[in-house]
Amino acid sequence: MKLYFIRHGQTDWNLKGMIQGSIDTELNETGIKQAEELCSKIISSGIRFSKIYTSRQKRALKTAQIISNAVSVEYIPIDGLEEVNLGDWEGLSWKQVEERYPADYEDWYNNRRYTKVHNGESYQDMLERVLKALNIIIENNNEDVAIVTHNAVIMCLQCYVTDTPFEEMGRFKAGNANITIIDSSSLSKEVME
Q: What is the pLDDT of residues 135-176, one digit of tens each?
């Protein structure tokens, strides 16, 4: 079974380079257009999925709704697919984080999989909740599904599946309204543990 991971369309915070994390931002006009253009690509390429699962955050929900309307497949919000919670850093740019929290940023930068941001979570925390959500999805489906989620979720999953250090996750950066395909068999064994 293929899992079509779709990053939500653009938000104003994406455009400004601000850390969104758990902040519930909306798609901007460009993000809506990106989601609509993605629908055209999905239809023209013949990609088919039986269901669309989505993070409950507004930017993902709206992207899922647009895709759902275009391909006539229901979308289902599910807990656990939300973006990593970066606590006190949310609302700042990465440059501002580096300037305001130099020691914390250095610790996180050098061990970002397990280092928690103050009032937030580590990428490992996020990965564990995402894998629980994926376990539910995999158990309840036999056909390919789409999963509308967030950049850090997709990057962390790619690191996890390919056994890549999380400090190199930038190489898996997902563009807004882009698809990353992961075969469920690459997750199934680990998810079941």
A: 999 999 999 999 999 999 999 999 999 999 999 999 999 999
| 90 among known catalytic residues | no
Residue in 82, 83, 90, 121 annotated catalytic: 83
Whether residue 60 is contained in a domain is answered as yes
Q: Which helix (H) or strand (E) holds 96?
A: helix 94-100
**Catalytic residue at 83?**
yes
Q: What is the mean pLDDT of residues 112-140?
A: 95
Q: How far is residue 177 from each of residues 41, 66, 77, 102, 140, measured CA to CA in Å? A: 11, 11, 17, 32, 25
In degrees rounded to 5, what are phi and psi of residue 125?
-55, -50
One of 8, 90, 121, 150 is an active-site residue; which one? 8
Domain that holds residue 164: 2-187
> Is 141 contained in some domain?
yes
pTM here? 0.93
Whichever domain contains 19, its CATH number is 3.40.50.1240
